[in-house]
Amino acid sequence: MPNSSVTNAPLARHAMAYILAGGRGSRLMELTDIRAKPAVYFGGNTRIIDFALSNALNSGIRRIGVATQYKAHSLIRHLQRGWNFFRAERNESFDILPASQRVSETMWYEGTADAVYQNIDIISSIDPEYIIILAGDHVYKMDYEIMLRQHVDSGADVTVGCLEVPRMEAVGFGVMAVDETDRIISFLEKPADPPGMPDKPHMALASMGIYVFNTRFLFEQLRRDAETPGSNRDFGKDIIPYLVQYGKAVAHRFTSSCVRSGAEAGGSDAEAYWRDVGTVDAYWEANIDLTAIVPSLDLYDRDWPISTFSETWPPAKFVHDEDGRRGHAINSLVSSGCIVSGAALRRSLVFTAVHLHSHADVEGAVILPFVEIGRGARLRNVVIDRGVRIPDGLVVGEDPELDARRFRRTEKGVSLITKPMIERLAE
């Protein structure tokens, strides 16, 4: 393979994206009872994992692997249906890599690093010069080519994607300190008291879970780690701290490579959009934010599209035009196949094939596919899981104590509604 560091060719041409998509995402509560977090629906017709996959595709990467583990059926089915267009004759590849005891018949993936280690033979057969490790459960737009170029130009052993977050919000991240050249001088995984940045003590520099390596060097580190007693087999807990101490680890700031959409977004002054939608509140907020007149995340941007598998459905339909029975939606996103029949919808995001019946009044709702909202239902600040049938006249969002007894109600007053919860109402 030519040394791409001395050519002007895009480095993505010589890279593989390896997406870690095996996590449960337990903070999403019942939303991940039957699916892994990367398979959770987002934004009207996409899944969370589509953002990492689309970033790789838009960056020019044509060799992708996805490691799966927890309740992976819906994720694997989505990947097979929506991401099966890569062609080997064009030097492209797309591999779904479930935990399959390749190293030992008794071992599942023990950590993020182990999820790569167990597939070294498959990666070797693809033979990428660089490998970019990605988390499959975040919502953002990023040009990985820029990060790859920094990795090569800096001579780093590992380049770690990072973003600035409020200091006490960094307790769930790997937190790093850097010198004036952005070399990482310390790395703490999920510290209880995250260190602040020297110039911004109220902010911390947090790892995005994105790492760039030269592939052969990564293999050496994975084999070393696998032979280390007591290792967690994890990038954040083991591999990265080791390289901070004994190698050259460099931070890549998300603001350098984030994709800010559209001329009206304000160019470099626009928000560097990144969301961990790992709680029900964060998931609700990120979806509802899309209903703004000019949302921070532009799903309509054709310069950096988010690809997905999407079934063919007829256009959304709004019917009845009578006082008290007028099908309409205001400040809402309504997907294909939906029927708003004499119902009112405000500040809501509605996925495919949802049917709202007459006199239903819905506001602040994230409604997943194939939901049916009964006549006269009144719903405020809800997340409704796929396939739920909301009974006629059900009221949610007006009595916090009643909501908490019947559904999963969050600290911020969002009610998560699933099939089992509705079934219990009839008992």
Which architecture of the largest domain per CATH? Alpha-Beta Complex
Secondary structure class reads alpha/beta
Ranges with pLDDT <50 over ≥5 residues?
none
Oligomerization category of the chains in this entry: single chain
Determine the CATH topology of the largest domain. Answer: Spore Coat Polysaccharide Biosynthesis Protein SpsA, Chain A
Task: Output the CATH class name of the largest domain.
Answer: Alpha Beta
Number of helices: 10
**Overall 3D form:** globular
Tally of structural domains: 2
Q: What fraction, in percent, of the residue positions are helical?
A: 10-25%
**Secondary structure tally: strands:** 29
Protein name: Glucose-1-phosphate adenylyltransferase
Binding site for alpha-D-glucose 1-phosphate: 109, 174, 189-190, 207
Domain Nucleotidyl transferase: 18-291
Site (Could play a key role in the communication between the regulatory and the substrate sites): 69, 108
